[in-house]
Specification:
By secondary structure, this protein is mainly beta. The chain has three helices and eight strands; from the N terminus they run βαβββββββαα.
Length: 212
Amino acid sequence: MPHGCVEIAADPAVPATRQDVQAALQPQAAPVRFVGWNLTDAQLKGVDFNGCEFVRCRAARADFSSCDLTDARFISCDLNNTNWTRAILSAALFQDCKLTGMQIVDARTLGLAFERCLLVSAQLRGLSFRRAQLEEIDFQGADLAGADFREATLMRCNLRDANVTHARFQAADLRSSDLGNLQLADASRFRGAIISKHQAAILLAGLGLKVL
């Protein structure tokens, strides 16, 4: 448990409300570690979760918009189709989480990190992953338009069918990642990236060329 956190467990079979969350937060002089909470469909807009930790929580379709989640930690949580519009996610961490359909819009994301997460069809326009170490992140079908991957290392990540229009990949290492069936029209979107011989062969195969 992080130093100074107060752990509060809950019955995962009982959906928690905004009032339940605020009741858990208000008496504490330190951040709360929420364990096993059921926050499905919870309306949490604007709640101060600075420094809090969420462990094995279910929060599908929850609204975290405008929340302060500075230094927050989400470990092994179901956060599918959650809304993070204008949230403060500075130095927040998502680890081993389900984030399919997650929407991050106009949020503060300096230092935001993901580890081994599902971000399928997530809305992540303009997000910065510069110099990040991204391992086993599934971005399939995600909207990454304008995202910054410069000098990032993507290890065993999935970028199939992701929208990477105007994304920046200069010096990004994509060699172990799945880029899908690359066509010549797609190549410019990964301009400046480091790819493997196998990935290059797939690209050239689309032009009818073989790499020996």
